[in-house]
Amino acid sequence: MDTLPQNQPLPSNYIIQLQVDTSASHGPFDIYFFNQAGSRPGWDRCQIDPAAGTWQFDEMKDGATNTLHPGALQKGPMHGIVTINIQIQGSSSYTLFTNGLQEGGAADGNYINGGFGLGVESGSQVSVKNVAIYALS
C-alpha cells in the first residue's frame, strides 16, 4: 500500500495495528514499512515468528539485508488472537508491541517514506485481520 484513501501519503508518525490468529498460522511473517519501489528497492520490516516467540527489525538496502535488532517475545510463543502494533516515529524509530506489551525496537533512518505491506516467508501461512494505520500527533 503506497497511499491512504483519497491518495493521502502515510503520515510521518504512525502506528500499524493488526491482529494475528496464531491458531490458523504457522511460520514467520513480515510487516513492511518504508517499502521503496524502483530500480534500487529497499525496505524496513519487522519479522515475527509466533511459534518460536521471536521478532526482529531488518532493513534491505542495495540488495543486502541487515538485522537491526532481534529479540525474544517476553511472553514466549504466541497463542490465540494477538494484537500487534508497530509504532513508527519519523524516519528512525520503530517500536514493537504485542497485546499492549512493549517488546523492543530499532532505529535505522535510511528511509523516510514508502509504502506498507505484509508478507510471509516461504512455507509460512498467516491469518491476519483488522489491519489499521493510525496517525500519531
Description:
By secondary structure, the chain is mostly beta strands. The chain has a single domain, classed as Exo-inulinase, domain 1 (Jelly Rolls), CATH 2.60.120. Helix content is 0%, strand content 56%. It contains no helices and 10 strands. It has a 5-stranded antiparallel β-sheet with strand order 8-7-6-1-10, with no helix packed on it. A hairpin with a 3-residue loop joins strand 6 (81-89) and strand 7. It is globular, with a radius of gyration of 14 Å. The model has no long low-confidence stretch (mean pLDDT 86).
CATH homologous group name: Exo-inulinase, domain 1
H/E element sequence: EEEEEEEEEE
Give me the secondary-structure category: mainly beta
The percentage of residues in β strands lies in: over 45%
The count of β-strands is: 10
Could you tell me the CATH topology label: Jelly Rolls
Structural domains: how many: 1
CATH architecture: Sandwich
Q: Which sequence of strands runs across the widest sheet?
A: 8-7-6-1-10
| N-to-C span | 22 Å
Largest sheet properties: 5 strands, antiparallel
Radius of gyration based on Cα positions: 14 Å
H/I helix tally:
0
| Low-pLDDT windows of residues | none
Helicity level: under 10%
Mean pLDDT: 86
The top-level CATH class is: Mainly Beta
Shape category: globular
Short description:
The chain is mainly β.
Provide the descriptors you would attach to this structure in a database record:
Jelly Rolls; globular; 0% helix; single chain
SSE map:
Blueprint: E1 13-21, E2 29-36, E3 42-49, E4 54-61, E5 64-72, E6 81-89, E7 93-98, E8 101-106, E9 115-120, E10 128-135
Antiparallel strand pairs: 1-6, 1-10, 2-3, 2-9, 3-4, 4-5, 6-7, 7-8
